[in-house]
C-alpha cells in the first residue's frame, strides 16, 4: 500500500512539474521554465527560463548526437539588459570559446582556446557593433605569441606582427584604414632581414630591397610611373 501511495505521489509531482513548464503569461509571452526538444524526438534542444518574454538566468543549448543531448553552449543572461555571457563547448565538454554577446552580436573580449590544451588560441576585442576593435592576438600551442594586430571598428590599423614559436619576428606590416600602407619587412626564422619595402594603398610602391645573409642583393622599383591623361 505504501509503495502504491509513493508511486502515485511521484506521478502526481511529475505531472504538476510538466504542467509548470512552457507556459505563457496573459499577454502571450513565454514565462517561467521552458524546455524544447528536437522535432519528433525526446532529445532536449534547449532549456532555460523567461520572465514575461525575456530570457533570464542560465540557458543551455544542446546538439542531437546519436539521439542524445550533448551540451554545445550556455548563455548567462544579464537581468538588466539583453546581453549575455556565452560559452561554446565541444562534444566532450571542452570550452571552445567564450565572451559577451548583445543579441547575436559579439561584443567586448572574446577568448578562443587551443584544440589540444586549455591555452588561448585567439584573444579578440569587439566594439558594440560587433566589429573587431582594439588588439587581436593569436597564439601557438606552446603559448607563444604568433600574431599581433590592431583594429579600429573592423579595419586593421597601424603595425601588425607575425612571430615564430620562439618569439622571433617573421613579418611586420603597417595598415591604414584596412589597407597595407607604409613600410613592410620580412625576416627569416633567425630574425635576419630578407625583404623590405613600402606599400601604398594596398600595392607595392617604390624601391623594394632583397637581402641575403645581411647583404643587399637586389632592388626592384615598383613606382607607378604611367598615369592616364585626360583628353578633351
Keywords:
1 helix; disordered C terminus; mainly beta; single chain; 232 residues; 19-stranded antiparallel sheet; elongated
Specify the CATH architecture of the domain at 104-221. Answer: Alpha-Beta Complex
Question: Which residue ranges are poorly predicted, with pLDDT under 50 across at least 5 consecutive positions?
Answer: 3-17, 225-232
Ends: how far apart?
Answer: 108 Å
Main sheet characteristics: 19 strands, antiparallel
The whole-number mean of residue pLDDT values reads 90
Highest-level CATH class of the domain at 104-221: Alpha Beta
Molecular shape = elongated
What series of H and E elements makes up the topology? Answer: HEEEEEEEEEEEEEEEEEEE
Give a written overview of the molecule.
- The structure is a single chain.
- This protein has 232 residues and is mainly beta.
- The protein has a domain at 104-221: Outer Surface Protein A, domain 3 (Alpha-Beta Complex).
- The protein has 1 helix and 19 strands.
- It has a 19-stranded antiparallel β-sheet that branches.
- Strand 6 and strand 7 (95-102) form a beta hairpin.
- The longest helix has 18 residues, at 2-19.
- It is elongated.
Secondary structure elements and pairings:
Layout: H1 2-19, E1 23-24, E2 30-37, E3 44-51, E4 54-65, E5 68-77, E6 83-89, E7 95-102, E8 105-113, E9 120-126, E10 134-139, E11 145-152, E12 155-156, E13 158-163, E14 169-176, E15 179-180, E16 182-187, E17 193-200, E18 203-212, E19 215-221
Amino acid at each position: 500500500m505504501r509503495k502504491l501511495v509513493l508511486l502515485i505521489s511521484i506521478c502526481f509531482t511529475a505531472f504538476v512539474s510538466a504542467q509548470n513548464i512552457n507556459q505563457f503569461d496573459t499577454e502571450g509571452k513565454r514565462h517561467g521554465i521552458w524546455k524544447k526538444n528536437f522535432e519528433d524526438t525526446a532529445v532536449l534542444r534547449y532549456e532555460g527560463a523567461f520572465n514575461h518574454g525575456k530570457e533570464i538566468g542560465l540557458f543551455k543549448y544542446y546538439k542531437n548526437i546519436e539521439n542524445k543531448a550533448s551540451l554545445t553552449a550556455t548563455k548567462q543572461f544579464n537581468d538588466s539588459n539583453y546581453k549575455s555571457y556565452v560559452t561554446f563547448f565541444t562534444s566532450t565538454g571542452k570550452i571552445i570559446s567564450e565572451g559577451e554577446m548583445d543579441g547575436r552580436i559579439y561584443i567586448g573580449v572574446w577568448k578562443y582556446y587551443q584544440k589540444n590544451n586549455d591555452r588561448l588560441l585567439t584573444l579578440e576585442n569587439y566594439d558594440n557593433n560587433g566589429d573587431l576593435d582594439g588588439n587581436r592576438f593569436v597564439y601557438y600551442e606552446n603559448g607563444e605569441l604568433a600574431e599581433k594586430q590592431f583594429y579600429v571598428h573592423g579595419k586593421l590599423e597601424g603595425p601588425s606582427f607575425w612571430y615564430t614559436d620562439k618569439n622571433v619576428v617573421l613579418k611586420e606590416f603597417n595598415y591604414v584604414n584596412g589597407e597595407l600602407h607604409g613600410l613592410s619587412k620580412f625576416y627569416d626564422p633567425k630574425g635576419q632581414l630578407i625583404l623590405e619595402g613600402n606599400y601604398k594603398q594596398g600595392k607595392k610602391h617604390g624601391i623594394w630591397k632583397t637581402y641575403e645573409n645581411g647583404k643587399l642583393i637586389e632592388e626592384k622599383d615598383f613606382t607607378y610611373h604611367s598615369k592616364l591623361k585626360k583628353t578633351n
